[in-house]
Amino acid sequence: MPKTLADIKKSLDSHLGKRLQLKANGGRKKTIECEGVLSDTYHAVFVIELKQEDNACKRVSYSYTDILTEAVEITFLDDAVATIK
């Protein structure tokens, strides 16, 4: 597991354009699970383009802090075992 925000950003930068499965804390004991593609990484956030038929919204964005605090877990589907928690 990456220890710093810079390490998390570098790890996500190397996976741009790849398919992923997202598991996020939705609050009040709700968990959001969906699939999409990592489209952009910015200074403080990253953007995921979701499959349109599964979700009402097209894009979601999370901060690198969400991964560090384990509120968001990303598993890349194109790689054999590439999980970022």
Automatic annotation (TrEMBL):
Family annotation (Gene3D superfamilies): 2.30.30.100
Transmembrane segments: none
Pfam (any one): VEG
Any one biological process term the GO annotation gives: regulation of DNA-templated transcription
Protein name per UniProt: ABC transporter permease
